[in-house]
Amino acid sequence: MSKIALVDDDRNILTSVSMTLEAEGFEVETYTDGQSALDAFNKKLPDMAVLDIKMPRMDGMDLLQRLRQKTQMPVIFLTSKDDEVDEVLGLRMGADDYVKKPFSQRLLVERIRALLRRQEAISGDIVGDTEETKVMERGELRMDPLRHAVTWKGKDVSLTVTEFLLLQALAKRPGFVKSRDQLMDVAYDDQVYVDDRTIDSHIKRLRKKMRNVDGNFSAIETLYGIGYRYNEE
After folding, report:
1. Before 102, cis peptide (omega within 30)?
2. pTM score, two decimals?
3. Which of 18, 38, 70, 128 is the right S-S partner for 28, CB 3.0 to 4.6 Å?
4. Distance CA 27, CA 165 (A)
5. Which residues are within 8 A (CB) of 202 and not within 5 positions of it... i.e. 6 or more apart?
């Protein structure tokens, strides 16, 4: 049973969403502010967190930043209806997905299940010698899906689930272009729609992490209006 942490200062949302998730078979923990959630996470991490952005004591952005210092567990943001800045900033800070308020609880459940499936697919829970589970080496890049481990020039790079899948898709066929639609298919289930901005934000975050270990990293090329390409170095 997967444990989901809900962090939102709206108690009505906490009550209704937790009831829905529990009915779907999840174990749910609820928190009304970021600091209370962080205190609990420091003792034991859930399998996934769903975070509101605007909260007292510690907002969702700050909580995500602190979480990413020690874990790459999946995180979904709940964002305001028209606040595109929050969505983009959240993705660039390391969130895996976002859902706009007001939202369908069925949509949220689908997003949670999709993200957990993606996590399982690269965490070692799926056993077998397949293309998706083999260690992949492309020049200075080494990816081990069963350990969710990435190194560049021998240095560890910590990636979220979504970032890992996008890099894996690009590096699998160096020199070939992947459109944004193709990358969406890799990172998200068919029933989950995301726009181009979401993929672009994940790629920018991915590049930033790679450049943190190698300031000259340039293996991911943008082809404007077309998509992205991995060039083996």
Report:
1. yes
2. 0.65
3. 18
4. 26
5. 91, 162, 163, 166, 187
